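Pipeline run #58 for the internal structure catalog. This entry was flagged by the ingest filter as a single-chain record with no existing model, so it goes straight to prediction. Upstream metadata was stripped on purpose; only the residue string is passed forward. Reviewer on rotation: M.T. Logging verbosity set to normal.
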Amino acid sequence: MAISRPVRRNSTITYVLAAILCIFFLYFFFADSTSLPSLPFAPRQLYHTKQAAQNALSPPSLPFIKPTKLGPDEIAPPPPVVHYRMNNVTTSSTPIENRETILILTPLARFYDSYWENLCKLTYPHDLISLGFIIPKGREGNLATQQLQDRIQKTQHPSNKDRFASITILRQDTEPIIPQAEHDRHALVVQKERRAAMSRARNSLLFTTLGPTTSWVLWLDSDIVETPPSLLQDLASHNKPIIVPNCFQRYYNKEEEEWSTRPYDFNSWQDSPTAQGLAEQMGPDEILLEGYAEMATYRSLMAYMADTTADPRAEVDLDGVGGTALLVKAEVHRDGAMFPPFPFYHLIETEGFAKMASRLGWRSFGLPNYFVYHYNE
């Protein structure tokens, strides 16, 4: 049967309108991604990158560009509506190739030049690294802030092409209540109070700085002064939700008259029936601590699994983790895993974090033969 002319005309108009809508649809999804090459972040992750970076509401993990000063009669424009494509924020074993951003977070009570020098030697592209610090109130905190700012001023100078994407410094409104000398702060009697304070500091830093484009979070203590330059890509290459290297300390052995190494961080462990039995007998506000003779848990400590001749990529499952150099997929934190400042299954701070993450379905892993080194006081 022949088709009438009006019907053919309507079909043509329908096809034209459909084509226009299709073009508009494609432009809406892809135009912004292809027109924003000026910033180092993967453009697929967000719309309107330039506006996001220029506005005071920009997440701290994005580079912030100060806007030009307004005249006396000028009115500041309203903040832009910024859309983020969270599904495009990847965490993979090839983070450099995928331009994955890393947020390095450091609770800082004392500033060590060797910490900053080691940080600057990291070979992961610095334009993909954001830094965050939280510093306590008080004289020592003021000194650490000044020393940090002096180094930042040099590192972040416009003439330095290897500067970091952004740096955030938070100051706590309270002074540290725990002694900062290494021997005093590791005494058993102060651990619950000390680690609860550390948890609150870590959570404040995390919740303030974690941005929508962050792929990974590296918790790096301010007294970690030596790591492999490829630390970030080495840890991320395992593509694990939570992974921690073995933290050791270099020291001079007077008996053998030579430099040697010894384990430092005992918070990365595999649980034991003895520890579980102790927990069952504890009150609701009591916590288990590792590395103290007064509280023998007989857990398997990663610190004693080290073998300098074995494969540095060898992995072990962990039930507790230390925070000296801890790489976490940002989605683990976004899922709700934080550092409990209270007894959580009789665990607290980083060990409590591992337990909380496991309750959310995330496993923790350790690298017993891959080392970072702690400052020796």
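catalog note: The radius of gyration is 25 Å.
catalog note: The chain has ten helices and twelve strands.
status: ready for reviewer M.T.
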